[in-house]
Structure formats: structure tokens, C-alpha cells
Amino acid sequence: MKKQHQSVLLYCVLFLIWFFIPYTSVEGADRNDKINYPAYMQGIDYGNGPIYVIGHRPPDSDSVCTAIAYANLKRKLGINAEARITSAINAETAYALKYFDFQEPPLLDNAASKNIILVDHNSFAQAVSGMDKANILEIIDHHNFIGDVKTAAPAYYRNLPIGCTSTIVWLEYREANVPIEKGMAGMMLSAILSDTDNLQSTTTTDLDRQAAADLVKKANVKDRTAYFLAMEEEFAAYRNMSDKDVFYSDYKEFTVNGISYGCATVVALTPEKRQALEQRLGDWVMKNFNTQKMDMLFLKIHDLETYSATISCYGPGSVGCAAKAFATVDGNKIILGKNISRKKVVRLLQPQIEKWAATQGK
To answer: Where is the DHHA2 domain (predicted)?
Structure first.
């Protein structure tokens, strides 16, 4: 009987070892744990390439820097991948590229018939033209499922509820046991700091913080906050930009129940500059709303000194929807105690817009 109990105990121990060994922690990923990463994609026909890795339009630092880093990882794994952009990059991204000595990726203005990996979006509305006729092989994203993307064959789709797409790519480098070189670390770090407001955003997770801590060392960035503020100072200067250019510098469009709406995000360095931008861009939207071909427009502005933010609302029903989603209303403006990410803004707005659309017979 004693031997039988010993055998049962041995089998239990062996089972636990078998069960937990494959799930190595992120902390231990730098060990020589050889994970056959390409096996994840054995069902995907990458062909001879090239495979274009591309973010949303207009591009921000997450979509550009993540495309660069993920294309590099694919090349390390034997896949002919190249980063592309949808349109001109903003000043923040240009600063990051120059700092880490990267060239701006080439423009891809039409994705039709191309082999594509989407990063940082999952919607044709935010994609470059022709994406509905592209061969989409993978999607790497951290947004909610609002997309209408369809694929002819099963695709690799990785979506995590975290602050930045580059955090997923950082995780994939580690899972694949591919060393992260200084430049690639700088690209991923820049994206994470941008998307999480230097890890201050409400969408920031422990995984984002862990990635940033690792990438700061690998990128040899001595002062993370100083580097972040240098990026933001470039971005918030809005040099030689018209009101329209500033409004659309970080902008995304969505459609729900027949209602189209756009969300713009603008950054200021101080509360005073935030208030000046609210007035300046508010005047422009009021004059030009009817030409923008959207049912609703939302303008979120926050400053980096206090992290306070406002959301200005334009279009029938917009103020009511935002008031139900958030809190204090001042005219056509929602006053937020602290800045929240656009991702969370959209997540809170969407159900209210759905309800409003139902009352309009949409």
C-alpha cells in the first residue's frame, strides 16, 4: 500500500512538472529556454515576400516604431519583412527615429494584393487604402475589437489589454529568444512611453512597466522621463502646422450603428497652453465641422504638467453621449480630473453612442 501511495505521488509530481515547464515566466525568458517560436505560424504561408508591417493612419509612434521592431523580429526568424508607414510621421516619431539613428520607413499608399501584417489597429477605417484587398497574415494590437478586417485564411491574431502594441512585440522577442539590440530597444521604448504617457496613462499595466524597465537598459537611456519629455516637446510644438494639421496629427475614426465619429488627441506642455489649444482648435472645428463628413467629433487635450484633460464635443448628440460616459460638463466640454487614454475614451463612448443611435432610427 505504501508503494502504491509513493507511485501516485510520483505521478502527481511528474504531471505538475510537465504542466508548468512550457509556461516559463517572462522573468525567466532570458534563460536558454528554446521555444520554437516559428512553430506558432506554421500554418501561415509567408511566401517569398516581402511582407509589409504597417500601422494605422495617421501614424503615431506606436504604429511606426512597432512596425520597425516587429519587421526586424520577423527578419531574424527568416521572414522577408519590411516596415512601412501610411503617411508622413509626426514630430515625436521623427525625434525618436533620429535619436536612435533610424531612417523613416518608406510609404505604402495602397495595400491591395500585398502581403500585410497589421500592427496597432484592426479596422479598415484606420488602415491604408486597399487593405480590404490585401492578404493579411497577422494582426498585433492592443485595442478593443472594433474592426471589420476579414482574411481568406486563418491569421495569427495577438491582442492584449495593455498600454502599447510594442509591449507585445517586446514579449515576442523574449519568447523567441531573439536578443534585443540597442536601436530596436529604443524603438519599442519610444512607442511605450508615447502610448502610456511615460507609464502614467490609465491603460498602463505591469507588463508595460516591466517592458519599459528592460528596454531602458537595453537602449542605454539614462533618464527615461527626460527622454519622454524631449519627445513630447517636439510633438507639442506643432511647428508650421495649421489648425487642421494639429487636429488630425493624432486622430482615429470609428463607426457604430451607422454613426461615424472621430477622436483627436492633442498634447500641451502646460495648462495654459492646453487652454489656448482648446480655444484655437475649438474655433477651427466649429467653422469646419460640416466639411469633415463625420456625425460626431471629439477633441481630447491634456497637458504634461498636471495631466489634466478635457474632451470637447461636436455634432448632434455628442455632448449628451460624452456626459453619460464621463462626468462634469462645461458647455460642449467634458472636464476630466486626470487624463485617460483615447482607447478608454472610445471604450466608454461607444455604448452611449450605440444607445443614442438607436433613438435616431440608425
So the answer is: 237-346
As a whole number of angstroms, the distance between CA 210 and CA 171 comes to: 10
Indicate if 293 and 334 belong to the same structural domain: yes
Q: Which parts of 220-270 fold into alpha helices (H)?
A: 224-237, 243-247
In a domain, 302, yes or no: yes
According to DSSP, the residues that pair with 298 across neighbouring strands are 263, 313
Task: Mark which of 231, 259, 282 sits at the end of a domain.
Answer: 231
Which of 347, 309, 348, 351 shows the shortest CA–CA distance to 330? Answer: 309
Arithmetic mean of pLDDT, 281-297: 94
Between 182-195 and 224-237, two packed helices, what is the crossing angle to 10 degrees? 60
Q: Could you tell me if 182 and 60 lie in one domain?
A: yes
Is pLDDT above 90 for 59?
yes
Q: What is the mean pLDDT of the chain?
A: 87
If asked whether residues 222 and 106 sit together in one domain, one would say yes
| Boundary-marking domain end, from 168, 198, 231 | 231
Question: Which single residue is written with the C-alpha cell 494639421?
Answer: 245
- pLDDT at 62 (0 to 100): 93
DSSP 290-334: GGS--SEEEEEEEETTT--EEEEEESTTHHHHHHHHSSEEETTEE
Total domains, the chain? 2
Pairwise CA distance, residues 106 & 89, whole Å? 11
Cα Rg of the chain (Å, integer): 22
Q: Which domain holds residue 50?
A: 37-231
Cα–Cα dist 269/273, whole Å? 7
**Can you give the pLDDT at residue 37?**
59
Do residues 74 and 195 share a domain?
yes
The reported pLDDT for the residue numbered 36 is 57
Q: Note whether 302 and 187 are same-domain residues.
A: no
pLDDT tens-digit readout, 310-351: 999 999 999 999 999 987 888 888 888 788 878 788 888 999
